[in-house]
């Protein structure tokens, strides 16, 4: 007896019940496709984060307040601190922009929108963070001095609040205070977890007045003269701030360079990818349990048929072979369709993330689905093949 | 020449302890080549149990069974499946055709497991179907056939491998008079062509077709009526 005949029995077994075969295939398809897609999304998110951080430039230091040891005094970061960072004592520091930020609700016409980052700072901030203007203008030092209620909005805010309208020159309410929109920033795109365009930037003084009050700054963003000068700039900044804050041991602020930021963010998105991958693995497992289930049902339902085959002389190996081929065909077919669906899915932007296909995930998902079929199919099949013909024939 | 079937002190016990059922209690039986035998007996006397063992579908608890002079006692499952395929044709009361599969494919089934090539398989299966008068029903599935036709397909399947013995467990039990007559006529022809036939029946008219009748009482052969 040849393998071909056994395979023909298997194909006939599958086509005899198209509905059942189809549903099993669907289960595996979903499992495989979601593994491929979710891993691609995770990967896409982390590469977007890396790109956006790299896009900021490699010559930036971010200073933020940090609670020192319990009981030790924490001095707030102030505008004076920021101003003191630029001077003859720090030749490698080009700019130091004070930054406050808050969430704010903006309204225009009938619509309102919660801006996730409303930033108050000075005009140098735009250069430091590589932010270009798409429409209108940025605000000036004069606007900061006069505490004018002007604002530059991100692309997301523009599309949300001003659909089909040119926002420049319009008056928008921020926490019920009217601000004039003077410009719209060029879109930066999503960085995976965070939409970099969901923001607005206003003069520091105005923002403190209207939103945050005059407490500590959220950050001071320092631009060094060049990427090579960054270590020197960091040392100079540390010396100045330690002097101003009278620090002897633990500092009450923290300096992060772009490199460190990148490392931290990458770690975050890796966690994100692992999370997505485990969700995907679970769905693959569910698909596998689906195959087992179907194979159990298939075998149980066909125990009489197995008995008939054995009664006319089918050896155990041919029965086992037939059901294993059935299970393998199901999972290979479902796996192949799943790979196709997964690859198709990565062509679309999902939740603001452009998925990036990981080739090994395709291989992994496909191999796992095939193995699941073989593994979970073999148990019910071998159990059935071991039955004595008369037991199988008597099965209810 | 040795007998086709030689059974000595055959015992079959289902279950164990208090609930054990002794279906066969030391049964002896010899069937010569070319014989046509009817097995009769009360319900529960052990007829089917005996026939299943003769067909290698089940194994006895003890005793010896020589099939065509071969002792089957220490055969393993692989060897038994070979015996079932080459030496035995079994016809069931409930037909037992593979569902959703054409008559032709059902008859071809034993030949597939025997490793017969496709073309020859087809030829022999068609010849067997012709023999039972179903040449025009080859592509019908079991659910498109009458009971009598299904049983004839089952007989075609039993004889397609030219087995040493054809065993039939109440082959007419589920059939009306006309269908029964057709089935019995086929078995008569098989016997006339030199095949050994053993069948179980409750009906004297059916038993009348056989050369002799074996009566089973309580798992033993009670007497042989000629
Ligand atoms: N799988 C089984 N498990 C337990 N007991 C069984 C089993 N098969 C048969 N028996 C018992 O063995 C005895 C003989 O059964 P068998 O089927 O051989 O009777 P039979 O002579 O064919 O009866 P009938 O004429 O009704 O078909 C019965 O008492 C039956 O209950
Ligand atoms: Mg019976």
Give the full name of the CATH homologous superfamily of chain B: P-loop containing nucleotide triphosphate hydrolases
Helical fraction of chain A? 55-70%
Enumerate the distinct ligands.
Answer: adenosine-5'-triphosphate, magnesium ion
Report low-confidence residues of chain A grouped into runs of 5 or more.
none
What class do helices, strands and sheet pairing of chain A give?
Answer: alpha+beta
Domain count of chain B, please report it: 1
Rg of chain A (C-alpha, Å): 32 Å
Going by CATH, the architecture of chain B would be: 3-Layer(aba) Sandwich
Summarize the biggest pleated sheet of chain B: 6 strands, mixed
At the third CATH level, what is the topology name of chain B?
Answer: Rossmann fold
Please count the helical segments of chain B. 7
* Arrangement of strands in the largest sheet of chain A: 2-3-8-5-7-6
Number of strands of chain B: 10
Helix-strand sequence of chain B: EEEHEEHEHHHEHEHEE
What's the pLDDT, averaged over the residues of chain B? 92
Task: Name the average pLDDT of chain A.
Answer: 82
The coarse overall form of chain B would be: globular
Give the count of structural domains of chain A: 2
Cα separation of the termini of chain A = 30 Å
Protein name (chain B): Macrolide ABC transporter ATP-binding protein
Keywords (chain B): ATP-binding, Nucleotide-binding, Transport
InterPro entries (chain B): AAA+_ATPase, ABC_transporter-like_ATP-bd, ABC_transporter-like_CS, ABC_transpr_LolD-like, MacB-like_ATP-bd, P-loop_NTPase
GO molecular function, one term (chain B): ATP binding
């Amino acid at each position: 007896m040849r393998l071909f005949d056994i395979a023909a029995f298997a194909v006939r077994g599958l086509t005899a019940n198209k509905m059942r075969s189809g549903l099993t295939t669907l289960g595996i398809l979903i499992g495989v496709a979601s593994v491929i897609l979710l891993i691609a999304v995770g990967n896409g998110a982390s590469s977007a984060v890396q790109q956006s951080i790299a896009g900021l430039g490699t010559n930036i230091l971010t200073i933020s307040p940090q609670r020192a040891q319990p009981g030790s005094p924490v001095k707030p970061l102030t505008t004076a601190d920021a101003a003191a960072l630029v001077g003859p004592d720090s030749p490698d520091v080009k700019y130091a922009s004070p930054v406050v930020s808050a969430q704010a609700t903006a309204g225009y016409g009938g619509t309102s929108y919660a801006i996730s980052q409303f930033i108050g700072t000075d005009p140098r901030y735009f250069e430091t963070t590589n932010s270009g203007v798409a429409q209108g203008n940025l605000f000036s030092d004069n606007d900061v001095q006069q505490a004018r209620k002007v604002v530059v909005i991100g692309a997301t805010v523009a599309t949300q609040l001003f659909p089909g309208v040119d926002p420049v020159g319009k008056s928008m309410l921020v926490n019920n205070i009217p601000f004039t929109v003077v410009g719209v920033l060029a879109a930066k795109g999503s960085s995976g977890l965070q939409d970099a365009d969901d923001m607005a930037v206003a003069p520091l003084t105005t923002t403190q007045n209207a939103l945050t009050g005059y407490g500590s700054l959220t950050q001071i963003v320092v631009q060094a003269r060049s990427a090579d000068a960054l270590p020197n700039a960091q040392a100079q900044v540390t010396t100045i701030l330690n002097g101003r804050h009278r620090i002897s041991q633990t500092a009450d602020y923290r300096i992060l360079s772009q490199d460190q930021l990148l490392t931290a963010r990458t770690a975050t998105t890796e966690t994100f990818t692992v999370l997505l991958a485990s969700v995907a693995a679970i769905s693959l497992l569910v698909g596998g349990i689906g195959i087992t289930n179907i194979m159990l049902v298939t075998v149980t339902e066909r125990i009489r048929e197995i008995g008939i085959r054995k009664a006319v002389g089918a050896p155990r190996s041919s029965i086992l072979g037939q059901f294993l081929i059935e299970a393998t065909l199901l999972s290979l077919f479902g796996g192949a369709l799943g790979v196709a669906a997964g690859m198709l899915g990565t062509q679309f932007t999902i939740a603001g993330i452009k998925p990036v296909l990981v080739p090994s995930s395709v291989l992994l998902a496909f191999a796992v689905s095939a193995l699941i079929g073989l593994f979970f199919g073999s148990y019910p099949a071998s159990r059935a093949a071991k039955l004595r013909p008369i037991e199988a024939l008597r099965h209810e | 020449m040795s007998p086709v079937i030689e059974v000595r002190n055959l015992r079959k016990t289902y279950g164990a302890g208090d609930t054990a059922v002794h279906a066969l209690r030391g049964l002896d039986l010899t069937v010569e080549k070319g014989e046509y035998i009817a097995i009769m007996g009360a319900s529960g006397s052990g007829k089917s149990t005996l026939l299943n063992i003769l067909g290698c579908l089940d194994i006895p608890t003890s005793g010896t069974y020589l099939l065509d002079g071969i002792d089957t006692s220490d055969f393993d499952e692989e060897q038994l499946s070979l015996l079932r395929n080459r030496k035995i044709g079994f016809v069931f009361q409930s037909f037992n055709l593979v569902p959703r599969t054409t008559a032709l494919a059902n008859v071809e089934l034993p030949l597939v497991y025997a490793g017969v090539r496709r073309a020859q398989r087809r030829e022999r299966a068609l010849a067997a179907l012709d023999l039972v008068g179903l040449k025009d029903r080859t592509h019908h599935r079991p659910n498109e056939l009458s009971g009598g036709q299904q049983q004839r397909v089952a007989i075609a399947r039993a004889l397609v491998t030219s087995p040493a013995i054809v065993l039939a467990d109440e082959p007419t039990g589920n059939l009306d008079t006309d269908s029964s007559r057709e089935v019995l006529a086929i078995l008569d022809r098989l016997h006339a062509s030199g095949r050994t036939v053993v069948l179980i029946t409750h009906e004297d008219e059916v038993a009348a077709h056989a050369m002799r009748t074996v009566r089973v009482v309580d798992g033993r052969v009670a007497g042989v009526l000629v």
